[in-house]
Amino acid sequence: MIQGLKDKVAIVTGGGHGIGKAYCKAFAEAGARVATVDIDGAAAEKVAADLSGKSEGRAISARVDVSDEASTKQMAKLVLERFGRIDILVNNAAIFATIPMNRGGIDTIDPAEWDRMMAVNLKGLFFCCRAVLPTMRAQKSGKIVSISSGTVLSGSLGRIHYVTSKAGVIGFTRTLAREVGGDNIQVNCIAPGSTLSEENPTEEILRMRQAPVQTRSLKRMQKPDDLIGAMLFLCSPLSDFMTGQTLSVDGGQNFL
Question: Which among 162, 169, 239, 250 is annotated as catalytic?
Answer without folding.
Answer: 162
